[in-house]
Specification:
Largest sheet: 11 strands, mixed
CATH architecture of the largest domain: 3-Layer(aba) Sandwich
Number of domains: 3
Strand content: 15-25%
Strand order of the largest sheet: 1-2-3-4-6-5-7-8-9-10-11
Radius of gyration: 20 Å
Shape: globular
CATH class of the largest domain: Alpha Beta
Oligomer: single chain
Number of strands: 11
Structural class: alpha/beta
Length: about 375
């Protein structure tokens, strides 16, 4: 019991910890810049740490404390980079019944090209109650919960390898911070919905080659699936100014602003732009999941059949590909609800599955893949 109690104590003696007393946007906050010589450090090495701003900590009212870690990572082009994660530590009471520490890396769908919309800043200013409710749910089960800025310091939205590397390195950093680096000293899992599933999925595919020492208990991904300025119209209602306004607004605001619009209407040649060889190469490297490796851990995939954002076919194909090469997947296709509904009802099922994974229970199926239609509404 002594070892179990001690591993939760962060390694303050090895790090300089400061208190973030006020919120400063990442683009203006020198804390977010990597220190000189960071390139020589191993991926996942903690470069800087601080206590999270009080308003972020207060939102997770069942967390004993929250910290922010800046750590070494690797970008899409495999160059040295860095990223940040916000770590919430559970109370002693909530973790008392656990036989082994547990870590949930929760990738939120922040979908932005603006670094000032990153979770480490936006948790208290943008993303609101739904995200923090999930964080509190994990904390109530005694889990450490980590919320990484997986797009990195340049807000590289849709850069798959960048996101996957940052997620894996955030797990390395949190395990180091909590003294859980010994083999089998903790269980850890990944979770993401929509844009968060994109990051989690890439992490799952890249784990074997990039972070083979990480024995991930499972990954829950919701709405997993398979993006040009010079070609924008300069005039009319669908023009470059309108299109580029999305650069500096939150994803939810952009969705409302462009709701019901044909995005290809902004481009001079319509959807012809999507067939450009340059874009095909970029999409292949950064967007297409199931081409960068085979997840070596159990996967829980879930999606609403009538999701209005992406066709269910793309998720079906993604699951079929990884199942065809030996992945272990439980895939729920929900017959009711849309994208937002499945974020809620699917999220409940994901949390139950993650609880089983982090408790070390046998997951279904034991081997291979199981695809099933379910009917689970928001009110159930």
């Amino acid at each position: 019991m002594g070892r179990f109690a001690n591993v939760w104590m962060p390694i303050y003696g090895l790090l300089t910890t400061v208190l973030a007393t006020e919120l400063i946007p990442p683009s203006q906050d020198p804390w977010y810049a990597a220190p000189p010589g960071f390139e020589s450090k191993a991926p996942g090495t903690i470069l800087r740490t601080r206590q999270a701003p009080p308003n972020i900590t207060a939102l997770a009212n069942n967390s004993v404390e929250a910290h922010q870690l800046l750590f070494r990572s690797t970008d899409t082009l495999y160059r040295p980079s860095w990223a940040v994660t916000t770590v919430f530590l559970p109370t002693e009471e909530s973790r008392a019944g656990r036989n082994k520490p547990a870590l949930l890396s929760y990738q939120i769908p922040y979908n932005t090209l603006d670094v000032d919309q990153s979770p480490s800043y936006g948790l208290s200013t943008i993303y609101g109650e739904n995200i923090m409710a999930d964080v509190r749910q994990g904390l109530s089960q005694g889990w450490i919960v980590s919320v990484p800025d997986f797009e990195g310091p340049e807000a590289a939205f849709s850069a798959g390898p960048q996101a996957g590397h940052a997620v894996l390195d955030s797990v390395r950093a949190v395990l180091s911070f909590t003294n859980l680096t010994e083999p089998d000293s903790a269980r850890y899992a990944l979770w993401g919905y929509s844009g968060g599933a994109f990051a989690s999925g890439f992490a799952g595919e890249l784990q074997a080659s990039y972070a083979p020492e990480l024995d991930i208990a499972g990954i829950a991904i919701g709405e997993a699936r398979q993006y040009l300025v010079d070609h924008l119209h300069k005039e009319g209602t669908h023009n470059a100014t309108s299109f580029l306004s999305a650069l500096h607004i939150p994803a939810a605001e952009a969705i409302a602003l462009f709701s019901g619009q044909d995005i290809f209407g902004y481009f001079t040649n319509g959807d012809e732009i999507m067939r450009a060889p340059e874009l095909a190469r970029v999409f292949g490297n950064n967007w297409h999941e199931s081409y960068h490796g085979i997840p070596q851990m159990p996967v829980y995939a879930y999606k609403a059949i009538h999701d209005e954002n992406t066709n269910i076919r793309t998720t079906d194909e993604h699951v079929a590909r990884i199942c065809g090469v030996g992945a272990n997947v439980l895939y729920d296709r929900n017959t009711v609800g849309g994208h937002e509904d499945e974020a809620i009802s699917g999220g409940r099922r994901a949390l139950k599955w993650l609880s089983d994974a982090l408790d070390g229970r046998q997951l279904e199926p034991a081997n291979g893949c199981k695809v099933q239609n379910v009917t689970v509404g928001v009110s159930l």
